[in-house]
Amino acid sequence: MLFRELLTLRKSINDYRQNMYEITEKKGFSDPEVVKVSQLLDEKIAMLMRLTFNQEKSHLNKCQT
Question: Nearest-CA neighbor of 36 among 12, 14, 11, 19?
Answer without folding.
Answer: 19
